[in-house]
From TrEMBL:
Pfam families: BsuPI. Residues 88-175 form the Intracellular proteinase inhibitor BsuPI domain. It comes from the Bacteria. This is Intracellular proteinase inhibitor BsuPI domain-containing protein.
Length: 201
């Protein structure tokens, strides 16, 4: 069934798929947040069918050789157009694209509904927003399977109400279990990360 995945022979409810399904008809952040909340609630009611964290190993950086993936980060306005300048009070979307550059299927396992880790810095390089502290994630197992050459788009709704006027740098990465915010802030951009800027006026 579309809303379930199988890990090590055990079936579990995939809250990410339900959330995407609930958010599909909407572009507004508020309605999409309602969809995510409903998805999280439903996942808690359904349960994980005896699948525990002890049975499941979240993916780490060392699970993948160099150049397995490439990552790209962009922003879109409410009309789905790529943009980097937004007005105060406007909502926008962070678009993270992960591409499997290898010649084999690549499987990424997650211990929660979180798929992205990201930090936002202002012109003084102060952290003004980060996904780990500002977003709640359902504690359900998840998996992303990318075929050779396949791209996977991860979309996160954001609002300029969370930022002052100015320019901001976002560093985002797929949420591997051993990839920390500190690593996002260093100068090295790995195969799992991408960096881009946007401004609020």
């Amino acid at each position: 069934m579309f809303l379930f995945n199988t890990v090590d022979g055990r079936q579990y409810f995939d809250v990410t798929r339900l959330s995407q399904l609930l958010c599909l008809p909407y572009r507004s952040a508020k309605k999409c947040s309602i969809g995510l909340a409903l998805g999280s609630f439903f996942a808690l009611m359904v349960g994980c069918k005896d699948t525990t964290k002890e049975d499941f190993m979240p993916s780490q950086k060392s699970d993948f050789v160099n150049h397995t993936f490439s990552a790209a980060l962009a922003f879109e306005d409410n009309f789905g157009q790529v943009a980097s300048n937004f007005n105060q009070g406007e909502s926008f979307y962070l678009i993270f694209t992960l591409t499997n550059q290898s010649s084999s299927d690549q499987q990424i396992d997650f211990s929660s509904s979180q798929r992205l880790r990201a930090v936002v810095q202002n012109a003084n390089e102060d952290i003004v927003y980060d996904f780990d502290s500002r977003v709640m994630y359902a504690q359900v197992l998840g998996r992303e399977l990318l075929a050779p050459g396949e791209q996977r788009r991860f979309v996160v709704s954001m609002s300029t109400n969370d930022f002052s006027v100015g320019e901001f740098t976002v560093t985002a990465a797929i949420a591997l279990s051993d990839l920390s915010n500190d690593e996002l802030l260093d100068n090295e951009i790995t195969q799992f990360e991408s960096r881009n800027t946007f401004s609020v006026q």
